[in-house]
Amino acid sequence: MERRRLKLLNTRAAHQAAPLRTVLEESGAESVDLPLIRIEAEEVHLPELKESDWLVFTSVNTVEFWHRLSVDKPKARIACVGPKTAACAESKGYTVDLVPKRFDAEALAEALIKTAHREDRIVYPRSRRARPALKHLLEEDGRIVEDIVLYDTVPDPDAQERLVPLLEQVDGVLFLSPSAVHAFFEAAPADLPENLFFGSIGSITEKAIRKYTDREVITPETYTIEALVTTIIKKKVTV
Asked: Where is the Tetrapyrrole biosynthesis uroporphyrinogen III synthase domain (predicted)?
């Protein structure tokens, strides 16, 4: 029997769609790209970093935006939420000192609390829509946190208009952020195709999906693109 080729909707922003597309194609699936969100820069004045002890990155986007705004490499130690964010930071010439074993804000906060000195000043560049968990957990432990909004993630109305016809052509929809989930369900019809399933990069994104639907959601144990695609292929493809 021929291996079935899944057709999956890739909802990542246009500038980030390629990595997921590549992994899907290498796994024998087809990527249907529909960037339901876009990234918009905010007006930012960076703080004086000489007194900073830690710089915390929670996404590739924060690394990219920070790098564009900051001329000098910080002397502060750097913490990243996961390996992809760390790899992006290192590609810009930063030295990464801390990556938690689990790739989410809660694990990052826990790792910082264990590693940083209590009096350390932590600078946290972020998206306007970032969950408050990281800052809340650090401040709850008495840590000094300065958060800086670098960008916002907003729905792309042009992509939303193209969504409905595509839903009949795909087997599933992949989400790598809650922002993409919200943009999808803003535009999706109430009567989704019967066998449509959802793929989620992690538990937070899965929770966002479940606020809208009780459809099947596939989430990998490890929160990476590769693990997400591998989990979906194992579950959905018959050899």
From this structure: 20-229
